[in-house]
Amino acid sequence: MSRAIVEMLERQFKTNWSEESWAPPLQKALDGVTSVQAAWVPPGGGNSIWQILNHLNYYNERTLRRLNGEEPSSSMDTNTGTFGDPGNPADEAGWAEAVQRAHRLAERFLASFAELTDADLDKPFGDTTIGREIPLWILHDGHHTGQIVLLRKQQGSWPATRESFG
């Protein structure tokens, strides 16, 4: 059973989640963020880090369930609803739970990738296939990780420049 393509997708996922490469991974972007920083909304509006993580967790849970052949457990009426409220700056426990949820989802994705073969990529995934959807989902998470880094830069909670990775 060939796994060459699956291993490439798994590598992309790891780079997005935990391994420094061309861009900071989500795990690094979330490291050290407090509930106050997570709930901060930029001047002029936009989403908070907490809202972006809510959105990621929502779609990552749905994607994981579909990847494992399960029906998604819930559905939002709109994409905007997946972001939720900006978060409560005083709710460190709530923020910690949102971050832990992201960690648990990442662990479950890695376990799921370990079970896939290249032949599995042709299996249905909603109205498409696993092989067509997973690369788009990985790009989606990378896009939102960049937003989190930008918000942290605006707050002053991310280094203005980073010369090394890791």
Sequence-ordered SSE layout with sheet pairings:
Elements: H1 4-17, H2 26-30, H3 35-39, H4 49-67, H5 92-115, E1 124-125, E2 128-129, H6 130-155
Antiparallel strand pairs: 1-2
Helix pairs in contact: 1-5, 1-6, 4-5, 4-6
Protein name: DinB family protein
Pfam families: DinB_2 (PF12867)
Biased composition (Polar residues): 71-82
Task: Report a brief summary of the structure.
Residues 69-92 are annotated as: Disordered. The protein has helices at residues 4-17, 26-30, 35-39, 49-67, 92-115, 130-155, and strands at residues 124-125, 128-129.
Explain the overall architecture.
The protein has helices spanning 4-17, 26-30, 35-39, 49-67, 92-115, 130-155; strands at 124-125, 128-129. With 166 residues, it is an all-alpha fold. It has a single domain (4-155), classed as Four Helix Bundle (Hemerythrin (Met), subunit A), CATH 1.20.120. The chain has a two-stranded antiparallel sheet with strand order 1-2. The termini are far apart.
